[in-house]
Amino acid sequence: MANWIVLLVAFASVNLSLSVRELEYSTPQSCKELKQTYKITQDGLYYLSTPSGVVYQTYCDMTTAGGGWTLVASVHENNLYGKCTTGDRWSSQQGGSPNVPEGDGSWSNTVTFGTAEAATSDDFKNPGYYGIRAEDVAVWHVPNNELVGRWKLTSFLRYHTETKFLNNYGGNLYNLFKQFPVKYNVGSCPANHGPSVPVVYDVGSATSNHNLYGPNIRANSVPGFITFRAINAERAAMAICSGVKPTGCNNEHCCIGGGGHFPEQSPRQCGDFTSFDWNGYGANTEWSASKQITEAAVLIFYR
Question: Which portions of the chain have biased composition (kind: Polar residues) (predicted)?
């Protein structure tokens, strides 16, 4: 009975009048369902449930591009100088070892971590990441340590897909990355990249997004896309290239969430934001990304 009690509190916060019996038998499993079935239109934190009944809290964007977007993950670089060290949950907390080519394997496993409320201060992954069946994704870039109520106000990039591409990959990123493992030596560049999907910008633009990366990587990528499982020249794999489609093989300078081994070390690569600091932290010169995008969490939504 705990499920409907928790949900009753969530619904009461938006003055939605539903009986206990209705809540008990109508547990929402996504923000899209909350919007369509219960007519909730306010952004904020809500409780959802997995098909097996696990209740969890996450953020719902109920207003952007029709609303109904469920936050399922955030990638936050806690220490760019610590290459694949504690806290790099989306790459490897065990160092860049060839013995662990997939690292922590978070892109294709059911381990969860963090809290929705702290999604800009720490890595976050909830059961919706693998439990929700979705069609599109949205991405927000929000400055580190911002409070939930300020995420939308302070985000400097927000974009989403509209092609329903996830229908071709099992309905979520968990299944997509089963098909395209984020793992060292699983393929070569550029032959074995995963899909590149065009995006529509809600805040910012393809040009402003592109300019947040260094000029060298801008010359080796095309803006206006989100790319999954990009492999670099050293055969290391990165999960997501935010806002770009690589045309070269130095993808560690614009992609996040690497696998477990990056051969070019000293250390130069590895970590959740791989090599954004190649020519200096936040320098936005040569291969280095800007400080703005380096010091921002990447929030990932489904709809």
Answer: 88-97
Q: Give the tens place of pLDDT for each residue, 229-274.
A: 999 999 999 999 999 999 999 999 999 999 999 998 677 899 999 9
Smallest CA-to-CA distance from 213 within 249, 244, 257, 240 is with 244
The radius of gyration of the chain's CA atoms, rounded to the nearest angstrom, is: 19
Nearest to 262 by CA among 38, 98, 85, 58: 98
Burial class of residue 25, CB neighbours in 10 A (0-12, 13-18, 19+): exposed
Cα–Cα distances (Å) from 180 to 2, 21, 152, in that order, read 37, 42, 31
The residue behind tokens 């989100």 is 226
HEC readout, the chain: CHHHHHHHHHHHCCCCCCCHHHHHHCCCCCHHHHHHHHCCCCCEEEEEECCCCCEEEEEEECCHHHCCEEEEEEECCCCCCCCCCCCCCCCCCCCCCCCCCCCCCHHHCCCCECCHHHCCCCCEECCHHHHCCCCCEEEEEEECCCCHHHHHHHCCEEEECCCCHHHHCCCCHHHHHHHCCCCCCCCCCCCCCCCEEECEEEECCHHHHHCCCCHHHHCCEEECEEEEEEECCCCCEEEEECCEEECCCCHHHCEEEECCCCCCCCCCCCCCCCCCCCCCCCECCCCCCEHHHHCEEEEEEEC
pTM attached to this predicted model = 0.92
pLDDT digits (tens, 9 = 90+) for 91-107: 999 998 899 999 999 99
Provide the residue type at 82 as one letter. Answer: G
